[in-house]
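Progress against Task 2.4 (sequence-to-structure conversion) is shown through the following example record, which the project officer requested during the mid-term review.
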Amino acid sequence: MVARKFGYLAFVLLIVGLAMPVMAQAGGGNGGGGRGGGANSLQMRLQTIQQTLGSTDDEFAALSPKILQVLTFLQRLNAGGGGTAISIHERAGQAQNPDGSPPSPAQQAHADLQYTVDKPDSTPELIKAKLEAYRSVVAKVKEDLAAAQKDLLAVLTQKQEAQLVLLGVLN
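Structure tokens generated for the chain above:
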């Protein structure tokens, strides 16, 4: 009976953890999906993680910078691929976040590639160059993410590691 309840709780937490980024994109309230509410969404995600881990405020104060770093790299990795709303200006392919903040390198590389692909007169050589630039940025973010995850893993218990895997913070 206890195992069944634990399994159900783990399933619900997994669904909530996976749904949070989708809910943040779907929007509601002030400006809609992921627009202007990123800090609130991130704070909610951190609170969910703290509750899931069962950490005290002091314990989580030590973990949260490492978790935040992993979440930041995960966001950068997903940027442009549907993970973050950005707009692309017609003339220059310049990415801009809805809140006016500058784009991450991954967002800008994605915007540059999208702009190049959308232009009917783009040459195959130019497309290849933009594609290589995008892949280079993504590879760097993946390296940074792996290092941040390794750093986080060094301070987690086995149970915390499993919980963060279920929440999509670790793989």
